[in-house]
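Form 7-S
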Amino acid sequence: MENDSKKNPVYSHTDNSKVNLSDSEWKKILPDDIYYIARQKGTERPWTSKFEKFDEVGTYYCAVCGNALFRSNTKFESGCGWPSFYEPISKGSIIYIPDNTLGMQRTEVECGRCKAHLGHVFDDGPPPTGLRYCINGVVLDFEKAQQAEKKYNDGKKAGE
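Output:
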């Protein structure tokens, strides 16, 4: 999924300021599938994400705001039907919220920048964390490592 940054003025891989838009503002700038998952706490069907069997080296970003979420080396095959990771890229990249809906006790994970619903975290993952971040692929963007490094370095040069 390539995010249309012209339509979404908050999408950025370098700006980490918090994003707080109204529901109607989000609806105007997000594609319907992303809006449904991110803002209405929907769930994509299992085994439908292009990132489920994806193994490129790079960084996964929030498709809503561009916030860095996971490194590819923390992705693993969990068999659950959604892309799974054992560790976020940083402590602030994810927000944890108790979720007692559907008669279950779970922990919802949201983007630390825009509070988009990403999925849930469970305590049945692999070492070293023992965690499994089960993430809706619709709300993920991906950038290969070399592309990300080039953009980062170009941004630093422009800001000098």
